[in-house]
Every structure is written in structure tokens, then in C-alpha cells.
Automatic annotation (TrEMBL), chain B:
Residues 83-267 form the ABC transmembrane type-1 domain. PANTHER family: ALIPHATIC SULFONATES TRANSPORT PERMEASE PROTEIN SSUC-RELATED, ALKANE SULFONATE ABC TRANSPORTER-RELATED, MEMBRANE SUBUNIT. SUPFAM superfamilies: MetI-like. It comes from Streptomyces varsoviensis. The chain crosses the membrane at residues 94-117, 129-147, 153-172, 193-214, 248-267. Signal peptide: none annotated. The keyword Transmembrane applies. This is ABC transporter permease. Gene3D superfamilies: MetI-like.
Length: 298, 284
């Protein structure tokens, strides 16, 4: 599964004015804080991947940034123009694809705008289709076109490839990388797939217990390849941070980039997860088995 | 979970090759007769049985006349203009009653479906009134509204409104919250959400309600016209009862049935037009 991404070199992370500034963000459900005094900043045009086990609050953070969840405490600054692509495409089944793309745009946008966005994601031939007749990958691309037609300064992707099959996922990942390089908007990608994060992002954040527990700038050159130099070491490091046992050794002597408390793998602090299910190898089958998951010695 | 693979046991005789079965393509199985012909089977058979029963004397003419006699009566009623004028009156009653009922039911459902305040104010009341058997309210309507058109239309509207209310309300509340959220993230305002997400999402429920409402409307018409009407199909039937004309009664029943079918056909066409985005299971 070699996904190489074409295009110019990454815009350097964190330079220029911020696209996202979050400080002291707390979001509680009842008395359980899913996000707990979280700090985050993203530069303009930066591609950030947010990793974390299921239930760690990463999707909640994305919803807060999207403005869908406002029962929060703390300071959150996001661009006015932002767009979300959800895990499920969430197209209105009663509107044809092109009407879905234009939905919510101010004024009376004409159809050509939708067609242009759909062509950009390779869906120019399905503009008139009903969403129920699209395949999973096509629906997800339509959803992406709907996000892009708003020319967002911040694109929020909530596990957009999670429901796609492996082949379609590779194509979709490439598409996102191309679109990002063409558009130059900041992207926050929520995912639980370490390889996906490393293929796409300038910076990878690992979220745990409602905070950014770990941060790693991905210095790999683009186009990136799963078999490229340094990739395996980075993956092992991140898997270790995510508490996947057996992959920890490769990450042991990598310096932490944030000043957070030194963390043991999750197995050492089961009660600290707030009762969440501990990850097992079967939670991340794409990374936890097979020869590539073997510890890489530095 | 581990799966252990046992090595194949070579001491057993090799298994027989499985017998194969041809997968019959759907098209080749379907083409033997057009669908309308197959659908006509049932009614035609029923008519034949009826005619045979009448001809052999099993069915006496004063109980129920033969299909041929019915056709003759229908022709007479059509020719002298009594049936067309009665139908016109009845259809107008249903149309007006349906319109009033649909507007009232949908309006109430929108108010209580779209706002929590509306729900708190309206829903309990409507649910309470709904449990009253509306046929039982006929005497009250006659006292209140007299014996003209008003009580008949009110009866139809009442029966219709509750079906619309329940189904539109359920449709609105059944709209996928994920789609509402998606609309929210796309920048739709409250009215935009209602117009582009909630109402189209409630449409399937509304169409179901409309079909129930139509059935109820015809039922209410029959009830309403049995009581002190001086025109309409119901009046024709009452008159026929006085003269023991079973043939006229049956013709009127057939007319009710045909009108009901026509109305159902209209709603089906409407559904096909409005719900064309919905892939449906069409049977095999």
C-alpha cells in the first residue's frame, strides 16, 4: 500500500498568522471533561492530523472548531470560512448532487460553481445524480466538494476515509493531499490511522484524556511513501504514544516536543482513561499486525 | 482470536464435486406476461364467479343482481344525469374537506414539530382530541352546523387532520439529526434548515399521512352522506334503500371504490414525483 503524494514541498508549519487559536478549552458532558484545558494553535495552510483512541475527545474538538458544539469554556478562535467533511457523507438524499454542493451558500449561486467543485474532486459526471445512487467513495468526494466550494480557510475532516474500502481510501487520501496543496487552506484531519496521518500531515497531534498529549512535526519529504526512510520509525513512535504495545521500543528515545508530563503507555494507567476502553491490537488492524508493525530499532 | 488450520486429511476419499445450479437471470423469468395483465386476473375472476352465480340462480336477483344488470343500471344512471351530478357533489365535499383538513393538520404539525414551545402547547391537546371517535361527533356537528354542507365537510376535515398531524409530526421529528447538523455546518439558518433539511425529510411521512387521510376522507363522506343529505352519492344510496334497489346501491359502492382508487393513484403519482430521490424496494 504505497501512497505517494505529488506536489510541492509542504508549507512550513506554524509560520505566518494563525488559522486556529485555542486556549483553555474545556468541554464537559455532565461532570466528565472530554476536553480538559486544551491548548492548540494551527498556522495558515498547515495540515495537522489529530490522532487518538476512540473516545479521547478528538471528534468533540473538531465539532467545537466547526462551531457545532458551543457548550464550552475557554477561548477558541477559528476562521469565519470553515467547512467540515464528516465520516458519513451526510448529503441530503432529496437534493441532487450539485444542489447538495451549493446548499447553504449565500445568495443564488449558479450551477457552474458546483460543477467546477465536483470536477475538482473527479465527480463532474455525476452532478445530476441522486446521492442514494452514489458509491461510498463518490459520496465522500461529493461531500468534499461541498466543503471546498465554500473556499474555506480551515477544512475540518472527521475521519473522512474511515468508512471507505482500502483502495478507495488511498485514492481519497491522494485527492485530499492534492486539494490541500492547490487550495492552501489549513486542514485538521481527525483520524485513528497513524499511517494516514503520517502520509498527509505537517504535524501530528496525539490526544489523550482531553488534552494534546503529544506533538510531532513530520519532517518527511513529500511525496511520502509508506516504505520511505524514517516512516517506520515515526509510525512506531506514534503507535507507542497511542499505547499500542509491541511498537513502543522504536519510540523510546525520541524526544518529546511538548512539555507535557512523561507518559507511560496506556496499559500502565488504566484508571486514568476515565473508564474508556483500552485499545487492543485489534483496534488498529492496519498497523498492529503484519511485518511493518515490528519494532524498528533506531 | 486465533484460527488453527488442521492439515487436510489425505486418508479420506476425495469429496464428490458439488452439483452446480444455474443462476437464472431475472429478465428471462419476467417476460412471459405484462404486469397489467397479471394484475387484472383477480378482478376478472371475481366478476366471472359473480356472473356464474347469478346465472345459475345461486345468487337471487333481489339479494344481488348480476354484473350485467349492474352495468345496465349504471348506464341508466349515467344517461339521466343523476350519477354524474351526485358524483360531482360528493367529490367536491371530499376535496373541500380534504383541503381544510390537510391545511389544518399540516399547520398544527409544523407548529408542534418545529418548536418545542408549540409541542408543549399543542401536542397534548391534539393527542387527546385524536382519541375521540370522530364518527361519534356527528350529532354534535349537526347541532352546531345544521344540516347543510358544513357538518359533512367538517367531519371529513376532522378525520383528515389527525392523520396529517400525526404523520407530519413524526416525519419532522424523525429527520436524521446528522443531516440537520450537516446543514448547520454549511451555514444554513433556522429557516434554511427547515426548508432544505427538515421539510424534505418529513415528506415521506407526510405522504403516508396523506394516503391514510384519503381513505378516511371517503369513509367520512359515506358517514356524512348517510345522514340527512339531499344530494350526493350517499343520498342516492339512501333513496335506493327505500325502493329496495340493490343494483343502485352496488353501483354507488362501486363508484365510491373507483373514486377512492383514482385518489390513491393521484397520491401515488405525487409520491413518485416528490420522492424520486428515495430508492425503494419494488418487490420481486
Amino acid at each position: 500500500m504505497a501512497t505517494d503524494l505529488h506536489g510541492p514541498v509542504t508549507p512550513s508549519a506554524g509560520t505566518g498568522p494563525a488559522a486556529v487559536r485555542v486556549s483553555g478549552l474545556t468541554r464537559s458532558f455532565g461532570d466528565r471533561a472530554v476536553i480538559d484545558h486544551l491548548e492548540l494553535s494551527m498556522g495558515q495552510g498547515e495540515f495537522v492530523a489529530l490522532l487518538g483512541r476512540s473516545g479521547c475527545g478528538k471528534s468533540t474538538l473538531l465539532r467545537v472548531l466547526a462551531g457545532l458544539d458551543r457548550e464550552i469554556a475557554g477561548e477558541v478562535f477559528v476562521p469565519r470560512r470553515r467547512a467540515v467533511a464528516f465520516q458519513a457523507p451526510r448529503l441530503m438524499p432529496w437534493k441532487r448532487v450539485w444542489r447538495n454542493v451549493l446548499l447553504g451558500l449565500p445568495g443564488r449561486p449558479d450551477r457552474a460553481r458546483a460543477e467546477e467543485a465536483l470536477r475538482e474532486v473527479g465527480l463532474g459526471h455525476r452532478t445530476d445524480a441522486w446521492p442514494a445512487t452514489l458509491s461510498g467513495g463518490e459520496a465522500q468526494r461529493a461531500s468534499l466538494a461541498r466543503a471546498l466550494v465554500r473556499a474555506p480557510d480551515l477544512l475540518l475532516l472527521d475521519e473522512p476515509f474511515g468508512a471507505l474500502d482500502a483502495l478507495t481510501r488511498i485514492t481519497a487520501q491522494r485527492l485530499v493531499a492534492e486539494l490541500w496543496q492547490r487550495r492552501g487552506c489549513a486542514v485538521l484531519l481527525v483520524t485513528h490511522d497513524v499511517e494516514e496521518a503520517l502520509l498527509l500531515a505537517d504535524r501530528v497531534l496525539v490526544m489523550d484524556r482531553g488534552m494534546i498529549a503529544y506533538e510531532r512535526t513530520v519532517g518527511l519529504e513529500r511525496p511520502r511513501d509508506l516504505a520511505g526512510p524514517g516512516f517506520a520509525a515515526l509510525r512506531a513512535e506514534l503507535l507507542g504514544r497511542l499505547g499500542v504495545e509491541g511498537a513502543v521500543s522504536g519510540a523510546r528515545d525520541t524526544p518529546e516536543t511538548d512539555g507535557g508530563p512523561p507518559r507511560q503507555p496506556a496499559s500502565a494507567t488504566p484508571e486514568a482513561n476515565g473508564g474508556l476502553i483500552r485499545p487492543t491490537a485489534s483496534d488498529t488492524p492496519e498497523t498492529a499486525d503484519g511485518p511493518r508493525a515490528a519494532p524498528v530499532s533506531a | 482470536m486465533s484460527v488453527s488450520h488442521a492439515p487436510p486429511d489425505t486418508s479420506l476419499p476425495p469429496p464428490l464435486p458439488p452439483s452446480l445450479e444455474r443462476v437464472v437471470p431475472l429478465g428471462s423469468r419476467r417476460s412471459w406476461s405484462p404486469r397489467w395483465l397479471r394484475r387484472a386476473w383477480g378482478p376478472v375472476l371475481l366478476l366471472v364467479a359473480w356472473q356464474v352465480a347469478s346465472a345459475t340462480g345461486v345468487l337471487r336477483p333481489d339479494t344481488l343482481g348480476s354484473p350485467g344488470a349492474m352495468a345496465a343500471t349504471a348506464r341508466d344512471l349515467l344517461a339521466d344525469g343523476t350519477l354524474p351530478s351526485a358524483m360531482l357533489v360528493s367529490v367536491r365535499r371530499v376535496a373541500v374537506g380534504l383541503l381544510v383538513g390537510v391545511v389544518a393538520g399540516t399547520g398544527l404539525a409544523l407548529v408542534s414539530g418545529l418548536s418545542r414551545l408549540g409541542e408543549d402547547l399543542l401536542d397534548a391537546t391534539v393527542q387527546m382530541l385524536r382519541s375521540i371517535p370522530w364518527v361519534g361527533a356527528i350529532p354534535l356537528f349537526i347541532i352546531w352546523l345544521g344540516i347543510g354542507e358544513a357538518p359533512k365537510i367538517a367531519l371529513i376535515a376532522l378525520g383528515v387532520a389527525f392523520h396529517l398531524y400525526l404523520n407530519v409530526y413524526a416525519g419532522i421529528r424523525g429527520v436524521d439529526p446528522q443531516l440537520v447538523e450537516a446543514g448547520d455546518s454549511l451555514g444554513l439558518g433556522r429557516w434554511g434548515l427547515v426548508r432544505h433539511v427538515v421539510l424534505p425529510g418529513a415528506l415521506p411521512g407526510a405522504m403516508t399521512g396523506l394516503r391514510y387521510a384519503l381513505a378516511t376522507a371517503w369513509l367520512a363522506l359515506v358517514f356524512g352522506e348517510q345522514i340527512n343529505a339531499d344530494d350526493g352519492i350517499g343520498f342516492l344510496m339512501n333513496q335506493a334503500r327505500e325502493f329496495l334497489r340493490t343494483d343502485v346501491i352496488v353501483v354507488c359502492l362501486v363508484v365510491y371504490a373507483v373514486l377512492g382508487l383514482v385518489a390513491d393513484f393521484i397520491v401515488r403519482s405525487l409520491e413518485r414525483l416528490l420522492l424520486q430521490w428515495r430508492p425503494t424496494f419494488t418487490g420481486q
